[in-house]
Design a protein that fits this description.
homodimer, 100 residues, DNA-binding
DNA sequence: TTCCTAATTAGCGTATTGGCTAATATCCCA
DNA sequence: TGGGATATTAGCCAATACGCTAATTAGGAA
């Protein structure tokens, strides 16, 4: 959870994720879209990888990064759950009626 | 958004929020529940206040902190929206299936 | 091998974070 | 006015974050 939020705490990293939402992009293609050096981008990729938010796929010398949307979904859902946000209906001791 | 995620990126601060979910608590009462000094707690309160996640109410010498759940809700909802998570229905004509 | 391209890793400087103790407001009460 | 309780601010230190340039790794082509 800490890794997730740390990763999302930088605007550039959030921007990287939104770029990848459209589709996979190589490290170089991503770097071209931002106004920082490639090594700086590489560092941000590492943070996002460590949080599981992106996955790298190698093809020759090119690394293509894929957004791991499910990790983002599960992480944010987990946060909402932690704080009791979402489909909560009974503020009292009412039992949930979901089966399973 | 950055302030929100920075605030949530520290486990102790998330813990403070979950404690406040049950109900308002004074700064001292909160400090008693954690194993760090009061000034350290005060610093964390400041971060949470800056993000709008908690609100202080003074009564005598005592500051009582209230969770601003709506800010948390809106913030996380905003994040989900940013990444296109949630009740996405019409981003095109495609009936979306699964992740890869 | 050697060269070229793609990307990361190494190293450095500065800013921020996060913890502590000590000092300082602020308020209530006598 | 002074004392006691509550909480923050000030100051310090170690660790982390974040940007850069230079060097290195890795793969493909000749």
């Amino acid at each position: 959870m800490t890794d997730l939020f740390k990763a999302l705490a930088h605007p550039l990293r959030r921007d990287i994720l939104t770029h990848l939402r459209v589709g996979p992009l190589s490290a170089g293609a991503l770097a071209d879209r931002f106004d920082v050096s490639k090594p700086t981008m590489s560092g941000h990729f590492a943070v996002l990888r460590a949080a599981g938010l992106i996955r790298a796929e190698r093809s020759g010398t090119t690394l293509t990064y894929h957004l791991q949307l499910s990790v983002l979904e599960d992480g944010l859902a987990g946060a909402m759950d932690l704080f009791g946000i979402g489909q909560e209906q009974g503020t009292g001791s009412d039992a949930k009626t979901t089966r399973g």
